Amino acid sequence: MKILVINAGSSSLKYQLIDMKDESVIAKGLCERIGIDGSVLTHKTAAGEVIIKEPMPSHVEAISLVLNALVDKNHGVIKSMDEISAVGHRVVHAAEDFDKSQLITDEVMKKIENNIDLAPLHQPANIMGIRACQKVMPKAPMVAVFDNTFHSTMPDYAYMYGVPYEDYKNFRVRKYGFHGTSHLFVSGEAQKILGGKKGRIIVCHLGNGASISAVKDGKCIDTSMGLTPLEGLMMGTRCGDLDPAVLEYLAGKKNMSLSEITSYLNKKSGVLGISGVSSDFRDLLAGIEAGNDRCRLALDMFSYRVLKYVGSYVAALGGLDIIAFTGGIGEHTPEVRSKVLDSLAFMGMKYDKEKNLNPGRGNAVKLSADGSSALAYIIPTNEELVIARETLALVK
User: Fold this and answer.
1) Catalytic pick among 72, 82, 117, 147
2) What residue spans in the chain does CATH classification 3.30.420.40 cover?
3) Phi and psi for 99 in degrees, rounded to 5?
4) Measured between alpha carbons, how far is residue 38 from residues 33, 52, 85, 241, 277 in Å?
5) Which class is domain 195-378?
6) What does the pLDDT look like over 266-277, one tens digit per residue?
């Protein structure tokens, strides 16, 4: 069985075609500049990479180009679209409507559309991707895999905010969390490392967008992102946790509207805003090497906030069995890992510093040393595989 995984953005569309016999990726690619001049599809297979420059006025044309590429006689990987058994779609928000992935029906689509106000930047694009696939592939079953259903097991005292209860009931104001497919995959791999034991796991998904989850006995009990991805860690361009009164204060000082301030905190803050150089940690490290103290400050702030969340989640979990680092920064920035692991020495954490600096590559890389009170690992995430697995389970 082959499953097509779709992750649609407002002007982009990422895809993977996965053969579920061995969970191998047989093709993947990216459509860019959808609805904009200069649209391009980058299509990759074992045979190599193909660049296709064709107009993509909408996601319908983008999906059509993807399917044509998959069956093309020169660089295709399947003989016909009939080989695609189902399509799995990343959908950002399920609100409280669903606590697991869903086979897409008219009723499910209505609920997905009703949650646009909770994710106005991402949900419309996800919907466009689904509608485009339904138009081009009307017979293929479609599955929605949500970013936040993994976090639906949080207890009420963890997801509620200290605002009047009526705001939760009337406007659905609460913590939802995101990056759920990544946290699901990595915590699952961590459980395998623990010998199948459902232990106390902290997953640090650290990339341009970053979040941390506390997982106990296979269930998420807390996570750092909130109503939106703006809450939690300081990120590449997002501010993370801050006093809400800052919004009104800055709006007055900078003569900005509330929506302009929200965009400012989402797109121009965080590591980029502090360093003044970049949101890319490779640029930060180069800046530190050159003596740029703002780059040093950005790295220290990011690492410190990761540590604070980890520490609070150790308390919430009642201990720690394994901490896992994933994402671009989590996997490739030893300076951040060392700052976190060094600070956990008080609770008996021991790790191989040389291994941390040069972990090599693998499905899971052990960092903790003998005698450590908890395990520490680098575990590469695989969100597309999670979507494919969830899709397979529903269409079977």
Assistant:
1) 147
2) 2-146, 195-378
3) -115, 10
4) 7, 11, 32, 38, 28
5) alpha beta
6) 999 999 999 999
